[in-house]
Every structure is written in C-alpha cells, then in structure tokens.
Amino acid sequence: MAIISDDNLQFGKEKKTVNSAVKNPNIKSEFIEYDKTFENSIRPKSFADYIGQSELKETLKVILEAAKKRGKPLDHMLFYGPPGLGKTTIAGVIASQMGVEIKITSAPALERPRDIIGILMSLKGGEILFIDEIHRLNRVAEEILYPAMEDFSLDMTTGKSQTAKTLRVPIPKFTLIGATTKAGELSAPLRDRFGMLHRLEFYSTEELSQVVERTAKILEIEITKEGSKAIAKRSRGTPRIANRLIKRVSDFAIVKYDGIIDEKIANESLDILKIDEFGLDTTDRALLNLIINKYDGGPVGVETIAAALSEDTRTIEEVCEPYLLQAGLLQRTPRGRKVSPEGYRHLGYKPPSEQTTLF
Ligand code: ADP
Predict the structure, then answer these.
(1) Strand 330-333 vs strand 336-339: parallel, antiparallel, or unpaired?
(2) What is the CA(351)–ligand 1 centre distance, in A?
(3) What's residue 353's pLDDT?
(4) Of 165, 134, 164, which Cα lies nearest the Cα of 149?
(5) What pLDDT digit, counting tens, does each position of 226-264 carry?
(6) Which of 5, 124, 296, 302, CA to CA, is 20 to 30 A from 348?
(7) pLDDT, averaged across the chain
(8) Is the CB of 87 under 6 A from ligand 1?
(9) Which of 103, 240, 248, 337 is catalytic?
C-alpha cells in the first residue's frame, strides 16, 4: 500500500496552528511539536499493531472481509473524536488490509471546486480518499461530493446560462473515509451518505502503556513496565500524546540519567515538563484556574475563555476541553463551561459546595 499525500493538503490545519503557536507559548505543544515524519514512522499499519478500539477493529474486520468476498468497494466511513486518537491511522490500516492506496487530504485544502474534482478524478477503482476535518468542507465541495459518494459520478456544467448543460461524468468506485473532531457540525445530507459512523474513544492506561512500549521498541528506547505506565497515566487517554511524551522523556533520560526510563525518571521528567498526574499541562490548568478565580467557577462562554487565555476557540474546544470533560474536571452547561468539584480539588481548591460561609 502506498500512502499518497500532499504535505500542503494533508497538514494545512496544523501548519496554520503552528504559526499561532509560535506567537503564543501557551498553545498546546501537541501542535508545536507536530512532527509528521516521526508520526508516520511509528504509525501502525495492521490491526495487530493498532492498539485498543477493539469494538471498532472487530466490526471493521467483518466489513473488510465481506467487501473482499463481494469484490465491492467498502462503504463510506466517518470516524470522529478528539485529535490524536487514531482516525488517520485506522484509515491507513484499512487501506493496507484491503491492499489499496489511500489519498490523504483535509477539508481546508479543498477550497475551490477544482481541488475536490481533481482529487476525485485522480482516484483509481477501490482506492480510499481520506478527508480530515471533513466538517470544514464548504457547501460547493459538499455538493460535488454527494453524487460522487452515491453514484460514483460528477455532475459537470458546461456552457453558460441558457445553453448550460449538466453532464454526468462517471468516476471509479472509491471509498471516502472522513475524519472529524466535531461530528455535530457535519451537515445532515453529508452525514447520511456515510454507511458507517464510529466515535473513537479515549484509551485506557493499559492500552496507552502498550502504545508507549511499542513506540519505545521502534525508537530503541529502553523502558521498564512501570516507566511505560507512568507515561501512559499522563497521556490524556491519547496515543499521539503518549508518543510525544515517550520521546521527550527519553531526551531527559539520555541527558540526565543512564538512558533507561523507569517510573522515577518518567515521573521526574514529566514533572519538569509541567504535566501533572492527570496529564494536564499548563494550558489546561490555566483554563481551570481562570474559570475558578475570575468567573466564580463558571458558567462562562468558550469565546471568553479563549480570549482570556490568548488561545483560539478551536484549540480550546477541540484539544483542551474533550479530555477535561471526560476526566470530569469540567462541565458543559447551556450557559457555558463550569469547573466541577473534582476540578476544584485537582487544583487544590475547596469546591463551593464544601465552603462554609460565616454569615
Ligand atoms: P487522528 O487522526 O485521530 O488525529 P492519528 O491517527 O494521526 O490521530 O494518530 C496519532 C498518532 O498516534 C499516530 O502517529 C499513531 O502512531 C498513534 N496512534 C493512534 N492510534 C493508535 C493505536 N490505536 N495504536 C497505536 N498507535 C496509535
């Protein structure tokens, strides 16, 4: 299987965010340190290497087997969930298991009609087209996609006004795999054209320990079981973060210690990196602190939070919040975000419900 991708297409979003990250030292280091070569070098290529998400893997194995037996392309699929959980990776695994090529792009790179038409016309039978951030597709691109997904054809208009004619041009049968951090922002007609929708879940500590061990092996880093677990615990349920942390901890281990990562070295390095035992970093703690100290624990709107932290709203909504919500430290209410009693305790404050008033 060959992965064909154009850097500018595939990583449009990251490039933009990296620029703002340089201006703002608080922005998620996940984006600052985005290293495509490193990420691709450790990306699992088979179901056996793809850790966790067992329900998804079992379902996919059946679907893939059935498609192979029928000799038909796979149904279009949509994967959603926070960044770094393995949406791009599973698309690559599917392509590799089917023995087909995958073309990777992202919605912001498909601004003009010719971008999407060009890519659809270049597909060969059975190939997979992966569109990241598919919720950001514009309406024109979406409308080009509808007949392509449904009937494997493109509706082209020729001529002007009264003499205009619509031509139906067939294209090879392909499978669209969409990925999004915001499934709710997908238009209903687009969502309905996917035969399978699946939400990727955060990973358990046990699963992330396996991710850390696997990456350590590839990078020839020596690490104990306890060392892997210590890193896994602070990885916010996210393989991309686990991979980033193992790399950073190994730098500490090489420079400061004898190179082997054990629990003590892992914990000390992560403390130096200001990643706490919940996996929260400076931005996450700044967010909770802001709501507690400036807004009485909330509710407060996400735009206000983003402005106060000099972050963009998307980073807050798509990168910080999902894990804080899942960890039960933050709550989403119709009037905005609130810090939960656990959030107060985690930062060393007494929750309002436990504070005694004198009068
Ligand atoms: P997403 O597309 O959801 O943002 P990616 O698929 O790019 O996330 O995954 C980010 C990194 O995490 C990849 O480099 C990959 O190596 C690793 N990763 C993701 N999911 C898994 C998994 N299930 N098992 C092992 N590594 C994984």
Answers:
(1) antiparallel
(2) 36
(3) 85
(4) 134
(5) 999 999 999 999 999 999 999 999 998 988 887 799 999
(6) 302
(7) 88
(8) yes
(9) 240
